[in-house]
Design goal:
heterodimer, A: 81 residues, mainly alpha, 68% helix, elongated, B: 201 residues, Ferritin, 9 helices
Chain lengths: 81, 201
Amino acid sequence: MLTEKAKLLHCLSAEKFAAWELHLYLDTHPCDKTAQRMHEKHMARAEELREEYERKFGPLSTRTGEGCEWVKGPWPWEKGE
Amino acid sequence: MWTYDKKLQYPVKIKNPNPAYAKIIMDQYGGPDGELAASLRYLSQRYSMPCDELKGLLTDIGTEELAHFEMIGAMIYQLTRNLSCEEIKKQGFDAYFVTHTNGVYAAAASGMPWTAAYIQTKGDVLADLHEDLAAEQKARVTYDNILRLIDDPDIIDPIKFLREREIVHYQRFGEGLRIATDALDSKNYYLFNPSFDKPGK
């Protein structure tokens, strides 16, 4: 059973992965308008999910966290929950 | 400049430690066709790339390889927790343990430390892109071999993800090679060294 935290991270990772895959595709197809639109859609959804995750469970990047909140584990290589 | 996301690109949650498996997987951490070699190869080759698409591609794939390096590191870490000295000896992890304890060190499965001699920056777009295409295939074969040797589903799942990434990167590099050859003199592909003969505009 996945916790709410794990589920939210899973959805965020899926959106970020889709956006990243399109980002690589656009390196070699920079003028593909359909891929550009799909990329924007996944980026926007990932951003919403990132905000929700960080509001509930703490910072995911050095842009959004520092001090106690940033250093607090589990770190990504630790199994956590 | 890089920024760090405090998450893995794909989850790694291994329930059962297994130092023998850690040693096998280590080949993709610090081995000749591993993720560290891939990342440093692409991030170094990008300086002599003649077109913008290729500078972007090598920067982005080189960056993604660092995320894969972290996933492999997480797998080695999780596979080597809470071991007894008996387990370490029984599973053939003693030679590694005596040098590195439970630290994660960039070496091949054979124990050979990572070396820059695994990679090349030739400063020639055709030579470098062909190396990159070969590197993705060699990494894919290493993942195939890991999948032949390992039966734990917690390991198989992230390894299959990484194997698929090699295939996607191979595709992107193939497109990159096409972009490069389209931009070269079609009567003179193999006599042309753009980074030397035509320094950046």
